């Protein structure tokens, strides 16, 4: 393995490669071959995913000054050196799935940075200097221990996608509503109790994911013409092998979603029955639509049939279809200043009762 690594770096130096792939090499320390002599002045893209690195060298920027992309996903990095701020040309930095507890303020010196991924670490706070990243377009800080987001984050005027799922956030800084280019905001599975009333006022913001916030009382009216709903199924990445419940309709056996297995808890919440029902109908319709004999049980209103046929998205964890069109109706504005502003409509759809395996029709007031 060591000889292969040495050969790969030797060839890259000799042929002045701009890309170097060192993924899955069982590296415990940063390869010294990359830092010898003048280093690799021509290297632009460095991939070092799925190794066992614990730190980065202080002279990284000095030896690799032209780095544009640095991918360090799935290592054991505990700290990044202050000298990281000297990578003047860096545009993409991926430090996801490491052991980071602190991000140094010098990260705000990466003025060319466009994509920053810090998901699945142990971060309790983020430096205010993130607001100095005026070119930043993507920020992913999901699966950490964050209770707040930096107030100065609204100064990232190019920010388009902000993902902060699975943290401990209680509120969203109102100034984030001023971000002119923000298109997607995902804060699923946090501790949100409310959202700023002007969230969604910007025409650019089109996707808002705030599912699995058990204490969220209402949604701002500006979000009602956006795509609101689930960014994930709420399940862990690794799902235990449990016996799957099924529903039998004549000659058709339809497996119920794997979420139908337990009472919800803080760590394993059960999705709304509406979402589960739509998934079951979607699966059943997909299996039976090729055989006209089985179409009778699914004579649904066209509006619902369109929902069941074409989900608005799929879970990024398990690829299950997500039917987020019904999500706003789970949050009527009863306890907000805008209560009663919108005319409520009735949505009728067919749902499976998981306790008795029977077919029932629910009329939901949304």
UniProtKB/TrEMBL annotation:
The protein's UniProt keywords, in alphabetical order, are: Leucine-rich repeat, Repeat
* Stored InterPro entries: Leu-rich_rpt, Leu-rich_rpt_typical-subtyp, LRR_dom_sf, LRR_domain-containing
A Pfam family of this chain: LRR_8
Query: Which Gene Ontology CC terms are recorded?
Result: cytoplasm
Instruction: Keyword check for Repeat, yes or no.
Output: yes
Q: Which domain of life is it from?
A: Eukaryota
Show the stretches that span the lipid bilayer. none
Q: What name does this protein carry?
A: Leucine-rich repeat-containing protein 28-like
Source organism (scientific name) = Sinocyclocheilus anshuiensis
């Amino acid at each position: 393995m060591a000889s292969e690594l040495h050969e790969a770096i030797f060839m890259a130096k000799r042929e002045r490669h701009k890309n170097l792939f060192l993924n899955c090499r069982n590296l415990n320390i940063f390869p010294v071959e990359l830092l010898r002599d003048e280093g690799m002045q021509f290297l632009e893209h460095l991939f070092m995913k799925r190794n066992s690195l614990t730190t980065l060298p202080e002279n990284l920027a000095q030896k690799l000054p032209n780095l544009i992309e640095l991918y360090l996903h799935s290592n054991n990095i505990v700290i990044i050196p202050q000298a990281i701020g000297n990578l003047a040309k860096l545009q993409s930095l991926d430090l996801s799935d490491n052991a980071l507890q602190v991000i140094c303020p010098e990260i705000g010196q990466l003025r060319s940075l466009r994509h920053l991924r810090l998901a699945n670490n142990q971060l309790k706070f983020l430096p205010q200097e993130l607001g100095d990243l005026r070119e930043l377009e993507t920020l992913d800080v999901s699966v950490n221990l964050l209770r707040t987001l930096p107030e100065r984050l609204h100064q990232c005027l190019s920010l388009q996608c902000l993902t902060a799922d699975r943290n401990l956030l209680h509120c969203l800084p109102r100034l984030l509503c001023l971000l002119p280019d923000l298109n997607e905001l995902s804060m699923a599975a946090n501790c949100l109790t409310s959202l700023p009333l002007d969230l969604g006022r910007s025409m650019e913001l089109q996707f808002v994911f705030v599912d699995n916030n058990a204490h969220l009382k209402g949604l701002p009216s500006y979000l009602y013409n956006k795509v609101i709903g689930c960014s994930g199924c709420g399940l862990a990445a690794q799902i235990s092998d449990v016996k799957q419940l099924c529903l039998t309709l004549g000659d058709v056996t339809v497996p119920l979603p794997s979420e139908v297995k337990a009472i919800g808890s803080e760590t394993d919440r059960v999705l709304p029955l509406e979402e589960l029902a739509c998934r079951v109908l979607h699966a059943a319709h997909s299996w039976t639509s090729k055989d006209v004999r089985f179409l009778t049980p699914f004579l649904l209103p066209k509006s619902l049939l369109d929902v069941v046929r074409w989900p608005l998205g799929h879970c990024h964890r398990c690829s299950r279809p997500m039917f987020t069109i019904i999500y706003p109706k789970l949050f009527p504005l009863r306890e907000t200043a805008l209560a009663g502003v919108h005319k409520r409509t009735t949505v009728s759809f067919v749902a499976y009762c998981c306790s008795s395996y029977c077919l029932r029709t629910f009329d939901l007031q949304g």
